[in-house]
């Protein structure tokens, strides 16, 4: 009889415990799940911000080209030039180098014409002059510096960049950081330009200033030849 009573009591207690864990009739397994669920995992994750072409936080208006230009960091990380979600120049594409990295783009279609890197420390500045002298009206010019953009620059080079809309080309110096977007035939100075001087008092890296990153939307040109 004692064994029977003990068995009955044991079964009854087991039933009560199971009922509590299951949450009663129709409760399923929520309470069991709650026991093994941490408060952190129950918080809904914040939705990620949507990114648009070239990583821009907002889409560009119609008839505009989305771009992002990033200068090199010291002499370690290469520059990047992105247009309409297409990487025109980068270390991954293996078409960047020390000096000035320049991509020429058709201002109407947004198609890449040519992309080249020019060594402004040990290279020949005439190679750069031959590249930017014959530009056609409406050609967009994307520029990103890497390491040293200015040692080989002469007066003609600075004048040509100024005519493309640059404000800072005249004062560009050894190991400055510079990003710029201009165009052949512009009447005013370009709103798309950033420049940081190389200064031992403010440099982010030893011997180099911080890298620059610039993004925006460029209106398509009405004509280009």
From TrEMBL:
Pfam families with a match to the protein in the record: ILEI (PF15711)
Protein's organism: Piliocolobus tephrosceles (Ugandan red Colobus)
Gene that encodes it: FAM3A
GO molecular function, one term: carbohydrate binding
Boundaries of every ILEI/PANDER domain copy: 98-185
InterPro entries listed in its UniProt record: FAM3, ILEI/PANDER_dom, ILEI_FAM3C
Subcellular location: Secreted
Protein name: FAM3 metabolism regulating signaling molecule A
Signal peptide: none
Any one GO cellular component localisation term in the record: extracellular region
Keywords: Disulfide bond, Lectin, Secreted, Signal
Family: Belongs to the FAM3 family.
Top-rank taxon, per record: Eukaryota
């Amino acid at each position: 009889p004692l064994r029977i009573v003990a068995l009955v009591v044991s079964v009854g207690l087991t039933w009560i415990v199971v009922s509590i864990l299951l949450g009663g009739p129709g409760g399923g397994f929520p309470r069991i799940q709650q026991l093994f669920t941490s408060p952190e995992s129950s918080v809904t994750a914040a939705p990620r911000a949507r990114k648009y072409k070239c990583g821009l936080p907002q889409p560009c208006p119609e008839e505009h080209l989305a771009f992002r230009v990033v200068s090199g960091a010291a002499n370690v990380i290469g520059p990047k030039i992105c247009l309409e979600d297409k990487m025109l120049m980068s270390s991954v594409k293996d078409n960047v180098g020390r000096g000035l990295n320049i991509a020429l783009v058709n201002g109407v279609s947004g198609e890449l014409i040519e992309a080249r890197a020019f060594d402004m420390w040990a290279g020949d500045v005439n190679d750069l002059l031959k590249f930017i002298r014959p530009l056609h009206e409406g050609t967009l010019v994307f520029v990103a510096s890497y390491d040293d953009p200015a040692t080989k620059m002469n007066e003609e080079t600075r004048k040509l960049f100024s005519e493309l809309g640059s404000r800072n080309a005249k004062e560009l110096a050894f190991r400055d950081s510079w990003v710029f977007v201009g165009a052949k035939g512009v009447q005013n100075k370009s709103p798309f330009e950033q420049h940081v001087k190389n200064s031992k008092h403010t440099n982010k890296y030893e011997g180099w200033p911080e890298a620059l990153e610039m993004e925006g939307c460029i209106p398509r040109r009405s004509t280009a030849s």
